[in-house]
Structures are given as C-alpha cells and as structure tokens.
Amino acid sequence: MNKTLSLALLGATMLAAMPHALQAHLTRIEVEKTTTDKAGDETLSGRFYGEVDPRDPRNAIITDLASAPRNARGMVEYSATFAITRPVGGSDVLFYDVPNRGNILRDPDPLPFVRVVSGWQGDLPEDAGLQTARVPVAKGLTGAVLARFVDMPAGSASLPIAGSIGRPTPRPLPVSLDTGKARLMRQRSDGAPLQAIRSSDWAFADCRQTPFPGQPDPTQICLRGGFDPQFAYTLTYQGKDPKVLGLGFAATRDLVAFLRHGDKDGAGNPNPVGKIAYALASGTSQSGNFLRSFINLGFNADEAGRRVFDGINPNIAARQVPLNLRFGVPGGAAGLFEPGSEGTLWWTRYKDSARGKGFSSLLDRCHASNTCPKVIETFGSAEFWGLRMSPGLIGTDGRADLPLPPEVRRYYFPSTTHGGSWTGGFPVKGDPVPAGCALAGNAISSMESLRAAQMMLLAWVREGKAPPPSRYPTLHAGDLVQASAKAMGWPDLAGAPVPDGKLNPFITYDFGAGYRTQDVSGILTRQPPRLTGTLSQRVPRVNADGNETSGIPAVALQVPLGTYTGWNVKAGGYGAGSGCGFAGGFIPFARSKVERLAAHDPRLSLEERYGTHAGFVQAVRQAVARQKAQGWLFEADGERLIAQAEASDVLRD
C-alpha cells in the first residue's frame, strides 16, 4: 500500500509567529511502502524531509552549515530514507538501529520493540535497499582532499577516486584537472616515506580504453605504466562543493524526537509509532562510532532540550565517525591518514597530555544539557588490534585505567573477530579464511552476549535496574600488555604466526588549524597530515592456549577447539605479513595427543580435553548452564548452541 503522511509539525501561521531561532523539525514523512511479515509485524518505509535553522546554536556545530543553501524561511533542508517496524501488540520502546554504510545490520532474532532505521550518510549512492540521506551542497567552498588506493589489480590502468570500505563512495570533484596543482605519491609500507610521482606521469583521466594520458575524467586517475599492487598510492588535490554531511546527525535527532514526542501532523495524521516512553539505540562498528560522535557533539538533546536516546549501545566501536568534516569519509576504517582516532575517545574526563589536547569526555555536552543516556559499551579483541581501542581504556599515555562514570558499563567479548562470527556452530577448522588473510576465520560468536547486554540496557533505562559490574581487561589486573608474543604469554606454536607486528599503529596527526580535533569536525587543511608521533597501545594477555582471559567469554571460548585471535595475517600485496585489517584468526588444536606431539604443539588436543564427541557436547552443556546462570545467555540461544554442538563433527568417529 502506498500513501503519504504529510507531517507539518508547525503550520504556516505558527511559523510566522515563532521567534527568530526556529526549531529544526520534520516537514513531512512519505510512507512509500507497507509490508507485513509472517509474524504479523508491519513495516512502513519511505522518506522523511526536514529542515534546520543554521542560526540556532544547537546546529552551529555542523560543519559548513552556514554556507548551505536556504529556503524562503531561511532554513537548510535535508531528507533521508527510513523504515519503521511495528510489532504486533505495539510497544512503548523504540529501538533505533544505526545503519552501517547504508546497510541494516539487524539481529536475526530481533527484540519485540518498535524498530527504526534511517539514513544518515549523505555520501552514499541511493541504491535500492540502502538507508541514505540527501544533504545540500555548499557550493563555492573548496578544500584539501585525500584519497588512498591499495590492493588494486596488477597493471590497473586507471582507478576511480573513491573513499570508504565495503561500499566505495565518490570523492569530490577537483577544482582543476591540472596535475601540477595536485600530488600523487606512493609507498611500500605504512611506515615508509611517500615518494612523489611526476605530474607528467599521471592524469585525472580514464585509461581503460584509451592509452595514457587517456580521456580526461575528474572522477578517475590514470598512471603511466599502470599501478603496482605492492605499493599504496596517495592522492591529494583541491576539491570543490562539499556536501554538508554533518546534517546526518541532525536528521537522526529530528526523526527520533518526532517519533518520541510528536502527536499529529498538520493534516491530522497520527504519529506512526504511537506512544513511545523509552528510546534506545545500537550501532555496530562504523554505526557505533556514529553514536559516540552523536553524543559527543551534543545531538542527544533535541531542539526543545529533551533527551533523544535514553540508552545507547556502541558495539565494536573504538573511534568517532569522521562525518562532520568538509570532504569527510565516514565509511573509513582507521587506515593510514584517516581521521577519527584523534578526537575524544573516553567516557570520563581525561587530560590528553600526550597529544596536548587538554581535558575532555564524550559526555561533556550531554552533562551540560542534562541529556546523557545510559551507555553499555561492548567490544572484542579485534578492536584492540585493528581499531586502536586501547586509549579509550587507559588514555593516550597508557599509565592507568580510566574510571568509568556511573552511567556507563563496559563489557568485553574476549578472543573475538570484529563483530564476532555470524556463522555460529563449532567448526573444527574455523570459519572460512577472510579475504586477503592467511589464517582461518575466528568462529567465536558475540551475538548471544550482545543480545543479553541490550536487554540489560533496557532494564536499566525502563526499570532502573543497574546492569552487572563492568567486565573488561585492565592494567590493574595485569590484563593489558604490550602487543608481543613474550608479553602476552603467547604459546610456542611451530609454524604458526605470532602476534608481533600485527597491531594497527596509533599514529598521531596534524591535520591543520581548521580541524577541531576533539570533535573530529571542521576542515582538514593539511593533506596528507603531518605525522607527529606514535602512541603506545596495549592488548589483552592470553593463556596457555593463546586465548584471552578477561571479560565475558562466549560458550565456544569456554569449550575451545583451538586458539582464537583478534588478529590475522595479510597474505599478500601491500603490507603482506602485517595485520589483516580487523579480521580475527583461528589455529586449531590437534585431534589427538599423537598428532599434537608430532606437531610440537604445547596445547592439549581435542581428545585430551573432551575424550569423545559426547564429552565435548557435555562440556558445552555445562558452559551454557554457567552462562545462563550469570545472565549472559537467553534460554533459546543456549538450546541452539547445544544443538549446534550435537550436530558438529567434533571428535566424531
């Protein structure tokens, strides 16, 4: 069914009577499609339209908003997609899933709340199925742009100028196609010096059909002789006409504020979700970084000063999202020269002396407006190895554990890959090898513990029931150590890689005077940035099996089939032998003692641990019982894990 709900929160007469500083608001919601699933839950999807007043102090933090085009009322307009799922019987809880690069990363067994997703990333293509935003262009503005190219096919004649991972997004057009006004450089490794390529040897052009210098094209670069995948290439140039990407924060704020507090639209149509008493939000990886920045920049206060989200769950998120920047790349992933880790990373007030940035906290602005949410932060091993999680726990100087404020809980899922395995089960050989990596994939799932943490968040918000004490690695407990085999207590595994050299370094940058570092906002005036140093980091220690010991271990980690790591090894190309992004790895146990001794493996074999398949299943049953008793496993999840253990080929004849 197609229909349009026109949501005019303020009529023309009211607008005329309002004081100068108008509140940002939605002007209408268009419901384009309504579907009903097998359970009877109804989903409304479409597009909403809004506007913000650039003169309002609550919006002033949005980069380049003052230069965006305005409508007849002096407002800056935006729009975004949305989907709202209403459960049978309704709910007074709104659960907002922040899309990741436009994708909806929902729990396959969703909780029975009003589920809401909406677009916030204005640089994404408007492909079917993606949640996207349309934001205005600040025409006439220019600035420095950086694009980086790695792991291209050997001999590639030309490459698109794009950013992000997973779903490349176009970078802004150059002011000029004159390569003398731009720079293209290459390097053999992240620590190697940048080597300039002569301006006559490359072009803003497409050489796929026409030999160098190709056909002029502002969206591609062409290199004489083609690109070598053993190198990384860095392009810097002057771009023009930036999108006001920071409006993505306002779009989320305004939609949730209306769904929580709006009654009827100007045409008399009711709020499509009914009465909402509590609003929670969860974001995974990039989306969790979005939530951290959303709180840090003050967007958890709506334009009437009310709290937007009562509770948030930033999951596997270690940075801020580089969205509120001129020519930002919100889909980046902590690579070389990427902003996001320079800002405030901690929930408590901490003086960032190592970088000379003074005191700050992610909660400073919401404390000032009395709009802070309850926070349950969840993450795993890969966030230490690939996403630089360490300073959020022990600061940039690494001297001591940073205390958590009372409204924050932190739970660590040890020995997990980024986001945990979604395949489930107990594969003897691990998950499939991640693309470009050398080790098998890490099969430890964190979904069961994450689901339990989110229900704890709801009980905390709705009932005032405090969650269990935080559980995560600390310096005080001796859990956090240097990223080396010796310091970690890594077992001596013949022929297996070691953790040394797999940590993503925490490089400190100077992006120029236009960059507001603590807020990851403003203008990057120096590209590439000046490298000013490298901060020390810590990672969790391991036991004799090579598995981590702190936090909340999943059932599969309590009944291990091998060593599960938060790091992997890049198999080839640029950076071969270093860490493989933020993919975890797996090194299986031998089946028998004879095989173990022949391989010089100090870890007990599967037979020495469990005896038989039945013994393995019994060990899983016991771990499930322990996990349920501690409140970290739902009944249905426990039954599923036991069934997977029974169906597995572990120690089968």
TrEMBL record:
Keywords: Signal. InterPro entries: Abhydrolase_dom. Residues 244-643 form the Alpha/beta hydrolase domain. Residues 1-24 form the signal peptide. It holds the Pfam family Abhydrolase_10. This is Alpha/beta hydrolase domain-containing protein. It comes from Novosphingobium umbonatum. The lineage of its organism: Bacteria, Pseudomonadati, Pseudomonadota, Alphaproteobacteria, Sphingomonadales.
